[in-house]
Design a protein that fits this description.
By secondary structure, the chain is mainly alpha-helical. It has eight helices and two strands. β1 and β2 form a beta hairpin.
Length: 189
């Protein structure tokens, strides 16, 4: 079964039939979607209160609507459907932003309560940072996830979309290269 988009009384609706999609029907859907951009933009500006963020919301809404055109139900109102997509995107971004702010506030409060490192400690941290950036991105990422973020090999492997064995190998290589870099630097000093 295939889906096609039909235009009825100025509203795009999705028709299910056994015939291939017509490029004309898809064209009407796109035209109707583009005609909604000013209204979407106004609604996004109302929600976001920021022109740049509103434009990003509208762009993401259009992309999702085009990608999910096959989910547009027959007889549904295209305007209501796209406004729902936009609203859901905005709420998702607001939740994510709130969570990020909570994490940043938590870290800011932690750093204020910590003692400032001594001069030798600051130098060691700078050296470590310098050596870490000399590792390849894959090795650096693996070492930071396991070492600094204190993740398990399984968690890090899941994040990097690799096997646990590959993650262990990357961490081992990163540690070896880091040790070589520090020893080379110590020999030159």
């Amino acid at each position: 079964m295939t889906c096609s988009i039909a235009r009825r009384k100025g509203i795009s609706v999705l028709k299910h039939d056994k015939q291939p999609d017509s490029s004309a029907d898809a064209s009407y859907f796109r035209k109707d979607l583009l005609a909604l951009v000013p209204a979407l933009r106004a609604f996004a500006r109302f929600l976001a209160r920021n022109a740049s963020q509103a434009d990003d919301l509208v762009q993401e809404t259009i992309l999702q609507a085009l990608a999910k055109a096959d989910q547009f139900s027959q007889g549904s109102n295209l305007k209501a459907w796209t406004f729902s997509i936009l609203r859901n995107l905005f709420l998702e971004q607001a939740r994510r932003s709130k969570k990020e702010q909570e994490v940043l506030d938590h870290y800011a409060s932690r750093t204020e309560s910590l003692n400032q490192p001594s001069a030798p400690d600051r130098e060691a941290i700078r050296d470590l940072d310098h050596f870490l950036w000399q590792l390849s991105p894959l090795l650096r990422e693996s070492l930071v996830l396991i070492g600094a973020q204190e993740m398990t090999y399984e968690e890090a492997a899941l994040i990097c979309n690799v096997s646990v064995g590959t993650m262990k190998t990357r961490v081992s290589r990163a540690r070896t290269q880091l040790l070589e870099l520090t020893q080379t630097a110590a020999g030159k000093a």
